[in-house]
Amino acid sequence: MSVKEEELTNNSPPCASNSLSNYLWDDHPDENKWADCVHCGMCLESCPTYLETGQEQHSPRGRVHLIKSVAEGKLEVNEQFMDPVFQCLDCRACTTACPADVDVGGLIEEARGQVRQAMPLTGLKGVVSSFFLKGLFPHPTRLQAAGGLLKFYQKSGLQKAVRSTGALRIMPDHLADMEAIMPEIKQSVHKKYKNVDVIPAKGSSKAQVAMLKGCIMDVMFSDINESTINVLTYNGNDVTLPKNQTCCGALHIHAGDRETGKKLAKQNIEAFQDADKVVVNAAGCGCALKEYPELFRNDPEWHEKAEVFSEKIEDISKYLYDTGYIKPQSSINKTITYHDACHLAHGQGVRHEPRQLINDIPGVNYIEQPNADTCCGSAGIYNITNPEMASAVLERKMENVPEDVEMISMGNPGCMLQMAMGVQKYGRGGKVVHTVQLLDWAYQEDEKKGLGNKAASVKE
Amino acid sequence: MDKHLLDVAPLTDSSNRFGNLSSNLLYPESEDEVVDIVTKANESGKKLSIVSGGTKLGYGGLKSNYDLTLSLKKFSGIVEHTVGDMTVTVKPGTTILELQTFLSRYNQMVSLDPSCPSTATIGGTIAANESGPKRLKYGSARDHVIGMRVVYADGKIIRTGGKVVKNVAGYDMNKLFIGSMGTLGVITEITLKLRPIPKHTSLVMLTVREEALDELTAFTKLIQDSLLEPVSLEILTPTMSKKLINRDEYCLLIALEDVKKAVQFQEVWIDQHKPNEAVMTVHPNPNYFWQSFNELIPNSLTDLGESTHGVLKVGTRNLDVFPLLQECARIHHEGNLKIEASGGAGHGLSTIIISGNNANVVNAIIHLQSFASDLKGYAIVKHLPIELRKELNVWGESDGLFKLFKSIKQKQDPNNTLNEQRFIGGI
Amino acid sequence: MLLSKKKKQKLDPDILALTEIVGAKSILHYKEDLLSYDCDGFTIHKAMPKAVIFPKNTEEVAAAVKYCADRSIPFLARGAGTGLSGGAIPLNNEVIISLVKMKHLLEVDYENRQAVVQPGFVNLKLTNSISHKGYYYAPDPSSQYVCTIGGNVAENAGGAHCLKYGVTTNHILGLEVVLPDGEIIEISNNGVLDMPGYDLLGILTGSEGTLGIVTKIIVRILKNPEAKKTVLAYFDNVEDGSHAVSDIISAGIIPAALEMMDQTAIEGVEKGAFPVGHPDDIEALLLIEVDGIAEGIEEQIEQILTVCRNRNVREVKVARDEEERGRWWANRKTGFGAMGAISPDYLVQDGVIPRSKLPEVLERIRSISDEYGLRIANIFHAGDGNLHPLILFDSRIEGETGKALKAGTACLKACADAGGSITGEHGVGIEKKEEMRFIFSDEEIDAQTAIRDVFNPNNLLNQGKLFPTPSRCMDIKKVIKETAITK
């Protein structure tokens, strides 16, 4: 049953073992990435799946070990290998914990690429996955249409009917859970600003920024896009929405579909060519855009373009913090806690800025939650593909949300859906909001009261 | 072997009142001589008792007829003291007082405060794992011994640990010998970790009447939960307190050792927070006080037999010291014997001195052993004449671990050459 | 989904029996799943286990142990697997008993200052769980974010702050242990000090998992010190720095931590993730922390500054605030990892020397460095003489790994020759088995294995660790060392 190490390998150094490698496709995991791992284990406690299972193969260093083992010819790309590689939430908490800066996320994505080519998805998972990833997200019009359907579903009263009759029970549990928290669909900024080139700054203009609309964001959370535009213009930014922009590709890359990921990346790089700064309000998207160079590590031409592009990307909270923003004067008298989206805290190192934004709003009673930077289990479409693990991770997360908060603020739409599900499922109080919405609401109050941006001071 | 027979004076009845001796007393002065004695005894099936300062003859042991007694009393002195490393290597017969006096010249000390420092030796202190009221901050022998040389029953010299203060190479063999009552080998050299002598010391005494003991208990908890860093939190029963400071009340001894400002700050804090009922005194000469405290407990050198004294070492959870001491006071009040006791609320170890006639002393010991056992602790008899020890189980009941103890003894001393029947379960 | 395919494979009866004991969800036995358990934090040697089980309670541990013992199946316990000496590597195709599912804090008794934890409870979580009341658990190995207290007991773990507060063994009050025959014993089950009998707590702590499997631990907890202050001092030469270390302690100060880095180490940390801006031309820096009653700290700091000045310090400063203190510590604590910035590979050693021998041992290490043509950085728990030479090498260069291993052994020899020890906190494990001979005679090693035989007479539990096995093992180790690739 078990096999001695010596039987598996000739003791030849991994770096010289390409002939042994069981990675059969291009773009295979990069040996320089695992070469940095000294197997110290400092990542273990940061990893939600390790915390849940206690098993090494579901830990960052365990996964790196397996990925390396395939290259050394000790393992094949098969289902047993796939399981740990796809159980990963891609939350990047290990990247923060790692003293040697091992790019576990990058390795996982590359390994997933190999798995997907070795074993294309079949069955329901395949259908769901290709429906979302290939059929829907890359196509704004289809998404808008889907959004339209959702909106119809909500407005028609059908939603109420379905919820009350329990017809939802025919859906798998997790899809039913998801349905329960679908946000109300409003008009997307895609539609609203269809014929507008530049949304002008309120008052004098100090800069021009491009904004990523995002795919899910613009359909399901169009009000957040609205808020983002408001906050940007309120602070003296002209905002553009470059026409050809598309889905960032994060979900595709996470799922191992690196080819579609590259296609989308190229389209975005070109779409934002004229922009100096690209502001993003979805942490997952922002992180993916910043990591385009990794995607093109074997393609010198696009790699260089991707490098230039990634320099332009900035999360909305960091952009505001760095360029200065007007401190609102109207109060939001609420008890608020903040959840660190993985791809903001671990992926982009943005932790302090959103907290500062929240704390600058008068009246806010801010409570830090324990383990604020632990994954909520959303992880792109992970909560659709790995519902059990996602809900275990969510349960752990909800244990940390303080009892008496009225709002939970964060910077990523995926987290918002997942956390809203948590609030609903565990009967907790707390409205789930995007950080930028809080600021927008306070600004709107200021405007109503005539305390507009002219009078306010800009915090540098 | 004859050359070691330096002192063959026949033992009088009274000098063998505590057992653990033989009429053949040997005083080796070197490790070679120890090896020689032990090897020959082991080969010829002789039973050897091992003593040092002679203060613990009343501590365990059911035999008074060993073939030979090996005394380490004359095997004494400092082997090596590295001031910069703060370590000292010392021979086992060195008394605690000699050792501390030597080290004090370098402003260093071994942070151990066992009873009878003027006669008790470092070897005996370690073999019996003795500690004092300052254990709260100081720790015990197991925290300070970093290396030893031990002569096994077959004459092999085994080094345990080393001379460095941090060391995890191999098993922590030092621990095996600490508190083993000389049943596993003869310790011939000890290396200890040292501490600097504190810059300033103070002793704050709080006394309360019996009715207000609860307030003192609450205050003890308060101190433990405060930012103070007491070196002792020793509670004295009224009888003990009467003897030491002439106040017939419960007393809490708070030793403070730090730089002057920090000590003074703590004194002020205690004054501000102490129970209303309590009278606070700062002792003018703490070192003198601790000396008299530590010499107070009867031992086989000082107990001359005018009445029967028994001494118990009781271990409980820290705060169970209070009910234990109250029980001691209660028994004392019954009037047929005298009990003086003190206990450390920071470490849970108490010392109880029982004086009276034989039967009453034995009964009180049995009662307190069961009382301690109800508190999920233990009470062992540290000092008692051998005839009474035979009536009791001085080590308490041996439990599920005894099998392991016996097996360890069997491995190291298969012929039972060393201190036969001295330890728990007759090991 | 995968089970159907797995089920088709014929199962080993031992696997079936162990599955009965722990349940199907708590056992791993397929090659792919076991591969992650072929080493711990020591990666030079790897071996595959027979199975990994995840018992949920003491009874399951005992049942599994009894099953293995009755059938002479070798087994070993594993915590987080962060050990640096290979103590949890299944050299003999062991059944690994992973204790990570036994990860609960069972009880905290603030008044009596003790806490009861299961072995899989993570070190830092204990402090985090009790800090709201102002308490902490003192032993703080640098892996404390992930390492388990069970593993700490096995290795007698230390940490930066053990100078003043002692190592794990000084904080263990009681243990529940499953012996290698499956019997469950309790040692001081109420956490009471000095239980009559031989000191089994003392002998089990640091026995590297060769005497029993710890299933419950009673530890001492301490009250946080009122105040902390941290000093950073730069020295132009190592001798002055090491004299300052001795002087500080001789002045009657026991710092909570007293750390030293040499020039190469400083170069590393300055290029790492947390640079502080240390000058690049100093030979040594000291990081000194004192804690205690706030009223007394200022005086100690003054004394430390004076000592440093008397030893020709170039610059000495006190951390202005918590933020600065944090930066200094982050710079120090990530020291090992930061070596990655100046070298593709490094090998860390763990010698201990008497403090006063520091200058001569550093000189010796310098000549070892010259001899092997490899750079060696030194990070040093100076207060207690625990030296971590970091041997920098590049495994891609043929033969350099072997050279690094030899240089490491030479460093340990230098420590042993100076009257020190071959390990201060990482343990012997597989890594330093042979080096045990540097400090112990055959008779002394036999005296220790005699104790192992008391607990573990058939040597089924964690076989092949800690002690050199005569000749045969020497050869095996030689082979391992020659062929291994080190990180």
Automatic annotation (TrEMBL), chain A:
Keywords: 4Fe-4S, Electron transport, Iron, Iron-sulfur, Metal-binding, Repeat, Transport. Its EC number is 1.1.99.14. Binds 2 [4Fe-4S] clusters. Residues 27-56, 78-102 form the 4Fe-4S ferredoxin-type domain. One of its GO terms (molecular function) is metal ion binding. Pfam families: CCG, Fer4_8. SUPFAM superfamilies: alpha-helical ferredoxin. It comes from the Bacteria. Its cofactor is [4Fe-4S] cluster. Signal peptide: none annotated. It catalyses: (R)-lactate + A = pyruvate + AH2; glycolate + A = glyoxylate + AH2. InterPro entries: 4Fe4S_Fe-S-bd, 4Fe4S_Fe_S_CS, Cys_rich_dom, Glc_ox_4Fe-4S, Helical_ferredxn. Component of a complex that catalyzes the oxidation of glycolate to glyoxylate. This is Glycolate oxidase iron-sulfur subunit.
Automatic annotation (TrEMBL), chain B:
The keyword Oxidoreductase applies. InterPro entries: FAD-bd_PCMH, FAD-bd_PCMH-like_sf, FAD-bd_PCMH_sub2, FAD-linked_Oxase-like_C, Oxid_FAD_bind_N. It comes from the Bacteria. One of its GO terms (molecular function) is FAD binding. Keywords: FAD, Flavoprotein, Oxidoreductase. Residues 18-197 form the FAD-binding PCMH-type domain. This is FAD-binding oxidoreductase.
UniProtKB/TrEMBL annotation, chain C:
It comes from the Bacteria. Keywords: FAD, Flavoprotein, Oxidoreductase. One of its GO terms (molecular function) is oxidoreductase activity. Its cofactor is FAD. Signal peptide: none annotated. The keyword Membrane does not apply. This is FAD-binding protein. PROSITE patterns: FAD_PCMH. InterPro entries: FAD-bd_oxidored_4_C, FAD-bd_PCMH, FAD-bd_PCMH-like_sf, FAD-bd_PCMH_sub1, FAD-bd_PCMH_sub2, FAD-linked_Oxase-like_C, FAD-linked_OxidoTrans_Type4, Oxid_FAD_bind_N.
